[in-house]
Specification:
11 helices; elongated
Length: 307
């Protein structure tokens, strides 16, 4: 660190100037966009705060440093706009951060679970890797928390619409942005309700289906030995297995395994009369709709909500 002594003053300034080995500022990996700023946060706390200060050049920007952890101390920074943020929110977040009592808090994911109140499947705190998005929320009165050693920043409080909106919506003309948001809303409804609605209509409300389509569904399901809900669960868990395998496998062959595995498993399952072709289409549409959700926390919620 650096100590600054001022002539005629009895107080010295201690400035944190120590450096660490770290990766350089690069593009955001989890929130890629085509148009707009491309830089993302890194694992060093002071670099992240410097990026935000370079974008939001205002004297109202306040950055408070708070120590977390007992056994291993880690620093976090609470950011807010003094003239915009609600003082009660600032006081409450400061209290929650200082009341955290754990041996170590090394990631934003752990801190998020410690400071949130509502025990719900829906996410209540937004996690982002993009500095421009943090600045936009700060200017709207929200608060941000940066944890040392983690490139993801927590933003709170937020509503559920913040998880559906993409950062790119702000960088295109409003007709295009509104159209993209409508597509995401439709995708969210599809991924949560399409398998359940299909099962409910085929099993209990067949009169809602046109006659020709009903005959096609009945003909495709005639050789299937399993009930329709078993068919849905088997296909859904098969898709989840392929998705997890594609994430864990090294990146050069991950997409290939996902595409080839889905094609081979789907074709083999239909040929062996284990699932119907229409069920493959329903699960495929659900899978594609799940990839349109821009936020990872909301995507995890939809995977449970589908079940």
């Amino acid at each position: 660190d650096t100590i600054i002594l001022l002539d005629g003053r009895e107080i010295a300034l201690a400035v944190e100037t120590k450096g660490w080995e770290h990766r350089t500022v690069d593009t955001s990996f989890s929130e890629r966009i085509v148009k707009g700023p491309q830089q993302g946060f890194v694992e060093v706390l002071r670099i992240n705060t410097a990026i935000i200060r370079s974008i939001l050049q205002s004297p109202d920007l306040v950055i408070e440093s708070i120590d977390l952890g007992v056994t291993s101390t880690n620093k976090c920074a609470m950011l807010y706009m003094q003239s915009i943020a609600n003082e009660k929110l600032v006081t409450e977040l400061r209290r929650r951060l200082k009341s955290v009592c754990m041996s170590e808090v090394l990631t934003s994911g752990v801190l998020e679970q410690l400071i949130e109140t509502r025990k719900t499947l829906l996410p209540t705190i937004l996690s982002t890797e993009r500095p421009d998005r943090v600045v936009r929320f700060l200017l709207q009165g929200s608060l941000a928390v940066i944890v040392g050693g983690d490139p993801f920043v927590l933003i709170l409080p937020v509503n559920v619409l913040a998880f559906i909106h993409s950062p790119e919506d702000e960088y295109v003309r409003w007709p295009y942005g509104n159209m993209l948001r409508l597509i995401r809303y439709a995708s969210l409804l599809l991924v949560m309700f399409l398998p359940g609605v299909y099962l409910a209509i085929v099993n209990y409300h067949a009169e809602m289906i046109p006659t020709q389509l009903l005959m096609a569904i009945a003909a495709s399901r005639e050789p299937i030995p399993f009930p329709i809900y078993v068919e849905v669960l088997v296909m859904y868990f098969g898709f989840e297995l392929i998705r997890e395998a594609g994430i864990r496998i090294p990146s050069p062959i991950g997409p290939t395994i996902g595409i080839v595995g889905a094609l081979l498993v789907g074709e083999a399952a239909v040929s062996a009369n284990l699932v119907s072709p229409i069920m493959v289409i329903v699960i495929a549409v659900t899978a594609v709709a799940s990839f349109a959700v821009p936020n990872q926390e909301l995507a995890m919620f939809t995977r449970i909500a589908t079940l």
